[in-house]
Specification:
It is a single chain. Helix 7 runs parallel beside helix 8. The chain has a domain of 114 residues. By secondary structure, it is an alpha/beta fold. It contains 8 helices and 9 strands. Helices cover 32% and strands 21% of the residues. The protein is globular and about 50 Å long.
Length: 204
């Protein structure tokens, strides 16, 4: 679990009880989350310290977000590395370092700055979203993507897109331009994700 906000945590108790699965979290998130109260099968990890689950080496790395101890993850097995990064307000060097060399990226493209400004949210919520502990804009996400592009990055999923403050077309266009600037022969495939149905599934 990345952090205690409801859109990431409210289903944990049901999943652990229904399927008998463990929930991996850090201490501060466990203490901050009402959704983990009396939850079964909790396993704690240490932020910024890798741990092993069967064949997977998992690194929970710290990111700036307005929660107790927000993390994102990289997962490595054999020669493959998957980076998953959403819910962060700014890109810091440790985030880039953790994600370098990923073969698959799930990357937040939360909002378009102009659409957010013109959108329906209250001013205080807009300020939170675009703040240093909020969410990445398309512009910031594109800059991050440019720093992570390499010949072995095969798939990028654009994730956590706001339905009110973003456009799938804008996010896809900006990411596509970044990939083409890196190399006209780049093998990186772009995939969109949605809140209401499953995105394209890849096999690695």
């Amino acid at each position: 679990m990345t952090h205690e906000h409801a859109d990431h945590a409210q289903g944990i108790k049901s999943i652990t009880r229904l399927y008998g699965l463990p929930c991996y979290t850090n201490e501060k998130t466990r203490k901050a989350s009402k959704f983990l109260d009396k939850a079964d099968n909790l396993v704690e990890f240490q932020t910024n310290e890798p741990f092993q689950v069967r064949d997977f080496r998992i690194l929970p790395f710290s990111v700036p977000h307005d929660a107790a101890d927000t993390v994102c993850f990289t997962l490595q097995v054999e020669e493959w590395k998957v980076g998953i990064v959403t819910d962060l307000g700014m890109v810091v060097p440790t985030v880039i370092e953790a994600l370098k060399g990923s073969n698959v990226l799930v990357l937040e493209f939360n909002h378009d700055l102009e659409l957010l400004e013109k959108g329906p949210y209250h001013t205080s919520l807009k300020e939170r979203i675009r703040g240093q502990y909020g969410h990445l804009s398309n512009h910031d996400s594109t800059l991050l993507l440019k720093q992570l592009l390499h010949p072995g990055l095969y798939h990028v999923y654009l994730a956590h897109l706001s339905q009110a403050n973003n456009s799938y077309e804008i996010a896809h266009l900006m990411a596509s331009h970044a990939i083409r600037e890196f190399s006209q022969d780049a093998v990186t495939s772009l995939h969109l994700t949605w809140q209401n149905y499953i995105s394209p599934v890849i096999t690695v």
